[in-house]
Structures are given as C-alpha cells and as structure tokens.
Design goal:
The structure holds two protein chains of two kinds. By secondary structure, chain A is α+β, with helices and mostly antiparallel strands. Chain A has five helices and three strands; from the N terminus they run ααβααββα. The two termini of chain A are 21 Å apart. Helix content of chain B is 28%, strand content 35%. A seven-stranded antiparallel beta sheet of chain B has the order 1-7-6-5-4-3-2. By secondary structure, chain B is of the alpha+beta class. The chains are: A alpha+beta, B alpha+beta.
Chain lengths: 115, 150
C-alpha cells in the first residue's frame, strides 16, 4: 500500500461515512428511490404511500440533505426536494479505492503462498 | 454488489497452505503487512499495528468471527480506520470473509467485504436502478472493474 493511497483513502473515508450512514435506513432509501428519477417532489408527494407523518419524513429528508444527497428547492411557499447524485459517485470512488487495496493485498498473498 | 467488494483469485498452492497463510497470525501479518499480538480466536479481538514503513504508529484491530478449517475465515473491522485520533468503534464495521475451495491446480480464494452500509444489497440495488442513466452507467463500470480484476 502506498503512502499516497492510504492517506487518500483516509480523507475519502472521512467524507464518505456520512453518506453511507444516511443511506443506511429503509425510509431514507425509499425516499432516494422516489427522488432519483430526477423529478423534484414536494413533501406531500414524498409522504404519499408512507405510514410516516410529514414531520418524520421531513426529518429523514434533513439527514439526506446534510449528507448532500438531497437538495431543497423553494417553490413558492412550498419546499421541493431534489436528488443530487454526486455523493453516490463518491461512494463508488471509495469502494474502488478499498477494492484496489484488496487487489494489492491479495497479490502479496499470492506470491507469499506460491513461493 | 454496490455495498460489497468481491474478489476471486486462483492460488497455485494447496488449500491447507492458503489456510495457514490466512489464519496463522504471523503468516497473515507478513502478506497483510501488520504485526499482530497473538493468534486469531473466534469471538476475540485481534490487535496489532501496521508494519508498512511510515505507518507503524497505526493500530490494527479486528474481531474474529468464524474459523471453519480450510473453508471459511472471517472477521469484522473498520476498513482503513487510519486516523489514530478518531474513535471508529461507534461505526458499523464491515465483514471480511475469505472462502477457500479446492481446484485441480490449487485453491480458489473468494474474498468479500460487505456491509459498507447496513442496507441489504437488493434494496440498494433497487434504489440505484431507479436512478438516472449516469449512475446506472457507473454501476456497470464497478461491475466491470471488479470482474476484470479478480
């Protein structure tokens, strides 16, 4: 493992863990599923079909917003919510980095057991 | 797929040899680049420190889960928890599993690291499928990346 990739992973990890945490909840995941079609949606639309109250849904949306996965757009008196794919792309990069570290470790294991 | 890493690697060594390299703490330490304090014991914490030059101050910690001889070795840990000042214990750990299978030429090693979030893989996949084309495309890239690099 190089110094550079280790420190890159450390800083990436710090930035990504709130995203993983935000997605680690079924309600929030279903909100992401509704929003990631690209359409902005109001709180009423997002509460539809859910057993949760508007207040509860709003709380979950705030968590997603803090992780950068959702943005609020004011439309008149109402807030609309919009999906932002960028943090998800960050997750992909993070997994790629961890994946590369395993490639390196396994290739060391290979030469270790084959010689 | 999205919240786990999977690797397959063919090793030209018998299963018993690979098992030892994985589960003997001194041998594990040599290829993994970590100096461990003692043997792996299921249910117990394994401690040590990184031996990679310049990173010796970093500790290594994992909880050994399963040791099914010549078949399965697994532990949970906080991947790349390398900030010595940060407490990672509150974060949900990931699960690392090494599975061994005998092949005509040696051993097939299957590595998975899962649980990058607590969500079941299929639910995440569902959420991502409904995403716009850009993210779909990138998921294919990951698939390709992982399958090309066994």
């Amino acid at each position: 493992m190089s110094h550079k990739s280790r420190s890159r992973i450390a800083s990436t990890r710090r930035r990504r863990s709130p995203v993983f945490a935000a997605l680690g909840d079924e309600t929030r995941l279903s909100l992401v599923a509704k929003l990631c079609s690209g359409q902005r949606q109001s709180i009423s639309q997002l509460t539809e079909g859910s057993r949760l109250t508007r207040q509860a849904i709003t709380k979950h949306l705030r968590v997603l917003e803090n992780a950068g996965i959702v943005r609020t757009v004011r439309k008149g008196r109402e807030s609309h919510f919009q999906f932002n794919p960028q943090p998800m792309e960050g997750i992909r990069e993070y997994l790629d980095s961890v994946s590369q570290q395993w490639d390196q470790a396994l290739s060391r294991l290979k030469s270790f057991v084959e010689h | 797929m999205q919240n786990r890493i999977e690797k397959r690697i063919e090793l030209k060594a018998p299963v018993s040899r690979v098992w030892r390299a994985l589960t003997d703490y001194r041998e594990f330490g040599q290829w993994f680049q970590v100096k461990l304090e003692g043997p792996f014991v299921p249910g117990q914490v394994s401690r040590g420190h990184i031996t990679y030059p310049g990173y010796e101050h970093l500790k290594w910690e994992a909880v050994v889960q399963k040791m099914e001889p010549e078949r399965l070795f697994s532990f949970t840990w906080h991947p790349y928890a390398i900030d010595p000042k940060k407490d990672y214990s509150k974060e949900t750990p990931t699960l690392v599993e090494f599975r061994l299978e005998k092949t005509p030429t040696g051993t097939l090693l299957l590595l998975t690291e899962s649980g990058f979030d607590k969500v079941a893989a299929d639910r995440r996949a569902e959420a991502f499928r409904r995403n716009d084309g850009g993210w779909d495309e990138q998921m294919k890239n990951i698939d390709g990346y992982v399958s090309q690099k066994p």
